[in-house]
Amino acid sequence: MVEKGAHGNKKGHGFYKKVKGEQGKEYLVVDPESLDYESQQEVSFESVEQAKKESGSAGERLKFLVNRDDKAGNFLWEIHSDLLLYAANRIPEITDSVEAIDRAMQWGFNWELGPFQRWDAIGVRESVKRMKSEGREVPESILQMLDSGRDSFYNNDGTVYNLATGKVDQLSAPANGALTVSGLKKDAREVWGNKSAGLYDMGDGVALFEFRTKQQTLGFELVRSVEHACQIVEEQFDALVIGHDHENFSYGANLGEAGQALQEGDFDKITEAVENFQRVAVGLRYQPFPVIGAVSGRCFGGGVEFMMHCDKVVAHHELYCGLVELGVGLIPAGGGTKELLLRAMDKVEESEDADPLPYLASAFKTIGLAKVSDGAPKAMELGYLRSTDMIVMNRDLLLATAKQQARTMADAGYRPPAEPKIKLMGKTGKSRLDVTLYIMTEARWASPYDKVLAGKVAHIMTGGDLSEPQEVSESYVLKLEREAILECFRDERTHKRMEHMLKTGKPLRN
Hints:
By secondary structure, the chain is α/β, with parallel strands linked by helices. It has 20 helices and 14 strands. Helix 1 runs antiparallel to helix 2.
């Protein structure tokens, strides 16, 4: 390759060569035998697809894959064997600290898991046995750790094994003043908990509610747990923070539970779940204490509705949120449609001469096109965040900042707001949204069933049958939400969308 001048990008080609094709720019790859350039081949592995479906976290997927006896599994095992042993051999050459190496790779190179976190996920004892059977040389420090009876570098008690000294050290805080759920657990600060959720004492009269479900989905039990936790907070605390240590805040409602209830024909259970979810989500705003949302990463559907009904949100800059219910054949009915409408109409009041219809149409398109923010500033622009909410750059300070905001609101003599009045535009507004929906459909932004679902959203946002613009109570709009989503649950097209999403992880455009 060097003799042929394939020195890399500056020479125009190396292992890859960028060319212009019919589809735009294309990166060809070199054939190591002939040194000719050819199109890259799409590859897929059954084990990888299975890992996506069955394994929740990155660590679980990695452990699953390196133990597959196929091309993908063997490839990943070869890479990680070298990586893990190399990292271990750099102690104490470059540092005495396991966590220093992991944090360097996470913070500096955007790895989700550092080398030693990956090793823990794969299983240190099992992988060392395999490495030795393959003739790989394992550092003595690793063998000493296993001989001491410790099977992992990190432990749930907040400790980390020191490969340089052979001792167990306390994990250092990721940032000065940082608060973590793992730290609260280590200090035995849990007040109440079950499989789906936990409530912790953060100190200074502030409680923390943690999601424990897979992908932080909002299932039947978790929603009931929020209600129970709020009762405890009212009796024992001054304020509540909703947040956790996970990268993503919430993937929304648990579709699996809803799908099972539909298969069993238990529509009463669906109705109860809809009513409970809406009551609990909207009820966060009317608790007798301030509720602060600490959100980061992906936040979809019901997670956004929880977030939007907190008194204040402290959001990490990397926030990817959206009301994406239409993709699974539903509409936002946990107060999400109502809240986005309310925020849109509140903007109108800022200028008495403003035409409300463009604000209404903008909020409608946000739901109808399932718009997802590409960061917290965009979430503010779309209306998912308010100008009074906070954006922080350091993810490790998210919970600490939320606690501080909660304490400040409580000290200011917090009182819950009164139920607001919302101006609905009636048939005038419905006509405007019908035009917007027509354009979306003609431009093929919306499928036939998208059009039906978006039509339900338009009905909620305008009151549909109202002959003229008028103010209504919040509860009136919430009732329209419940009626619309129950209609969705009875529709076979929704069943197909939910089933397709659960099977493939992708939306069905029927």
